[in-house]
Design brief:
The structure is a single chain. The protein is an alpha+beta fold and 163 residues long. It has two domains: 29 residues; 113 residues. The chain has five helices and four strands. The chain has a four-stranded antiparallel β-sheet with strand order 1-2-3-4. Helix 2 runs antiparallel to helix 3. The longest helix has 29 residues. The radius of gyration is 25 Å and the shape is elongated.
Length: 163
């Protein structure tokens, strides 16, 4: 074959390669932005803490509405614990709550993933209860979906503005 007999130039393969490269770079950049955005915004890598934040929000909303059965179901993830009956739960979240009374308002402040906790992997959510200046920390256990009061203050300084 000579130069005169060469096939005509077809730009399609080059265009496909260029578009695939651009698409791949855009995908990588978008993944980095979304992953870092969730972390910087306080919702965990790739916004992975948002389901736990919603669970805490629903739990505290049920307590505010004095719907203790719904709050208990959220707290135990619909698996009631015979060692922790609803009567004790109601007493713990009214008389002996972190604010020493019924919950009347809440504001979610921050959340952090905790992979080294006593219960395994979970999310610690810092909330302001009854417009108090300090946070209360609730721990959502990812393995079984139950909740408990956080036993340590991994996000204390971020929540209470004690930099």
């Amino acid at each position: 074959m000579t130069l005169i007999d060469a096939p005509a130039y077809d730009p399609r393969p080059d265009r496909i390669k260029r578009n695939a490269l651009i698409g791949g770079l855009v995908f990588i950049a978008l993944a980095i932005v979304i992953g870092m955005g969730g972390y910087v915004d306080g919702h965990g890598w790739f916004f992975s803490n948002i389901p736990s934040e919603h669970k805490v929000d629903h739990f505290l909303s049920a307590l505010e509405a004095k719907d203790y059965q719904a709050a208990y179901n959220i707290y135990t993830n619909n698996h009631p614990d015979p060692a922790y009956p609803i009567s004790r739960f109601t007493e713990d979240w009214t008389t002996y709550s972190p604010v020493k009374g019924p919950i009347t308002s809440h504001r979610l402040e921050i959340s952090r993933t905790d992979g080294t906790g006593v219960f395994g992997s979970g999310v610690i959510v810092g909330v302001h209860l009854n417009n108090r200046p300090t946070c209360t920390f609730l721990y959502v256990i990812r393995a079984d979906g139950t909740m408990t009061i956080a036993l340590h203050d991994i996000v204390y300084h971020a929540c209470n503005n004690d930099a």
